[in-house]
């Protein structure tokens, strides 16, 4: 029997507030409701994180993101924006190891969500930037 909490939610062993379901994905309200309507979209197939996805499954899951996004927008016309977050591994704040996408509606600057994007422009020379890009590109081609 699975010990994964999201597999249990998908299998209805643990109750959840369902937002959307089809044969590939399940979407439900995050228990913490960072903001009203905060939703988690998960593949029904158990994958731990982004590194485990087959392309087909990734396509199926990510194709549903705009669908849920539009449903949130229609449900809450007062919504002013939407953050889409996917945490991978503990350092990057993943706490449930069944891959999931957070959809976090934004209502105002002072709502209970924040994110910090540091600006390290100037930290790398043009040559170093090129080296970084080349290194990543070479892995994709491998
Ligand atoms: P992570 O930190 O892995 O990106 O996100 C995991 C999310 O799962 C958290 O936002 C947390 O509130 C949510 N969560 C954990 N356990 C449950 C649960 O039993 N039910 C629901 N609906 N959400 C949960
Ligand atoms: Zn699972």
From TrEMBL:
<dbReference type="InterPro" id="IPR019808">
    <property type="entry name" value="Histidine_triad_CS"/>
</dbReference>
<dbReference type="GO" id="GO:0003824">
    <property type="term" value="F:catalytic activity"/>
</dbReference>
<dbReference type="GO" id="GO:0009117">
    <property type="term" value="P:nucleotide metabolic process"/>
</dbReference>
<protein>
    <submittedName>
        <fullName>HIT family protein</fullName>
    </submittedName>
</protein>
<feature type="domain" description="HIT">
    <location>
        <begin position="5"/>
        <end position="115"/>
    </location>
</feature>
<dbReference type="InterPro" id="IPR036265">
    <property type="entry name" value="HIT-like_sf"/>
</dbReference>
<dbReference type="Pfam" id="PF01230">
    <property type="entry name" value="HIT"/>
</dbReference>
<feature type="short sequence motif" description="Histidine triad motif">
    <location>
        <begin position="98"/>
        <end position="102"/>
    </location>
</feature>
<dbReference type="InterPro" id="IPR001310">
    <property type="entry name" value="Histidine_triad_HIT"/>
</dbReference>
<feature type="active site" description="Tele-AMP-histidine intermediate">
    <location>
        <position position="100"/>
    </location>
</feature>
<dbReference type="InterPro" id="IPR039384">
    <property type="entry name" value="HINT"/>
</dbReference>
<dbReference type="InterPro" id="IPR011146">
    <property type="entry name" value="HIT-like"/>
</dbReference>
């Amino acid at each position: 029997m699975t010990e994964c909490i999201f597999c249990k939610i998908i299998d209805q062993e643990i109750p959840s507030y369902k937002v959307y379901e089809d044969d590939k994905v399940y979407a439900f309200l995050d228990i913490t409701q960072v903001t009203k309507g905060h939703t988690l979209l998960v593949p029904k197939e158990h994958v731990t994180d982004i590194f485990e996805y087959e392309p087909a499954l990734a396509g199926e899951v990510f194709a549903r993101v705009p669908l849920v996004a539009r449903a949130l927008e229609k449900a809450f016309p007062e919504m002013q924006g939407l953050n889409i977050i996917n945490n991978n591994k503990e350092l990057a704040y993943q706490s449930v190891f069944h891959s999931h996408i957070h959809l976090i509606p934004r209502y105002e600057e002072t709502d209970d969500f924040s994110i910090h994007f540091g600006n390290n422009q100037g930290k790398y020379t043009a040559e170093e930037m090129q080296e970084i890009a080349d290194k990543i590109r070479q892995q994709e081609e491998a």
